[in-house]
Amino acid sequence: MAAAPSLPRSTRQVLLTALPTGLPTREDFGVVETPLPAPGPDQVLVRNRAFLVFASLCSLIGGGDDMPLPALKPGDALFGPAVGEVLAAPAGSALRPGDLVRHMYGWREHALVPSDACTPLGDALPDPAAHLAQGSAAYGALTRLTGVRPGDTVFVTSAAGGVGSLAGQIARLLGAGRVIGSTGSPAKAQLLVSELGYDAVVLRGAGSLAAQLAAAAPDGIDVLLDNVAGEQLAAAIGAARQGARFALIGTLSGQLAEDRPGGAPVEVDAFQIILRGITLRGYAGSDHPDVAEEWTARFGEWLRSGAIRFPHTAVAGLDNAPQALQDVIAGKHVGTVVVEP
């Protein structure tokens, strides 16, 4: 074992302490100190520098067996994408103390990670936190499912979130002629247009979404990148041009609902899907394993050239992580939110 001296013997982590009756609040979590065993022969000890706070975590809290990741029960430690520094690595490992890696053991100060679950960061991105950006799903959906043709009108729902704040810029870089987003905040709408590649924004809660979308895209939309589902998906179907291509990558309208976490039931006009030849496909990163490396390379090039911005908020301190999740649920930030423990 190639190890740094004086390895920590304990660490702090965020636990789910109670199942919420609706959406989780900070009172449903606790920050506790726990013993940290010595690394095993196939484990890497990592000091986390930052981890991602993501709204879809709500679906895993008390979720069923149909979730893509393990459901969280009271007493479980939260988890999710993180970047950190290797403190100790097994003998013979390609990793060395001081290396930066990405893994899925966030929401704690230190993590014991299986060797095969650590991905070295390399130098493709100029900022380690950029490895927690959520643009891979947007890039994969736009390049693998819908394509973006020169002059296309693209509609992105939840445009100010971690995915959407990059998706509009990605669509523009891929050749879109007009990019429209949705959000619930006039201030966010202004930022989307002034800085993040959007031409127009429809506002949730400011009248009919269908009417707003028709005004923003009078000739219809060619591509939908949907993070929300629900009524926004229904509005997009009504605005679709012939042969429109839809990619569904999230269901925030259900995941952030008080009474129906996870799914997002909505009545859609199936006749219009048929009549307009709309293709509607769900995107899962696991179905496209080649996307992550391609996205990282292009993201790095775009960041260094100034072609793309990475809007994100860094929250300091593990004790503030439960509140950070509540703020993400409430939509208080633009872009990606990370905690630096």
UniProtKB/TrEMBL annotation:
Enoyl reductase (ER) domain residues are 22-339
The record, for Pfam families, names: ADH_N_2, ADH_zinc_N
Q: Which UniProt keywords apply?
A: Oxidoreductase
GO MF, one example: oxidoreductase activity, acting on the CH-CH group of donors, NAD or NADP as acceptor
Superkingdom, taxonomy of origin: Bacteria
Keyword match Oxidoreductase: yes
Q: Name the SUPFAM superfamilies on file.
A: GroES-like (SSF50129), NAD(P)-binding Rossmann-fold domains (SSF51735)
Q: What InterPro entries is this protein classified in?
A: ADH-like_C (IPR013149), ADH_N_2 (IPR041694), ER (IPR020843), GroES-like_sf (IPR011032), MDR_fam (IPR045010), NAD(P)-bd_dom_sf (IPR036291)
Protein name per the record: PKS_ER domain-containing protein
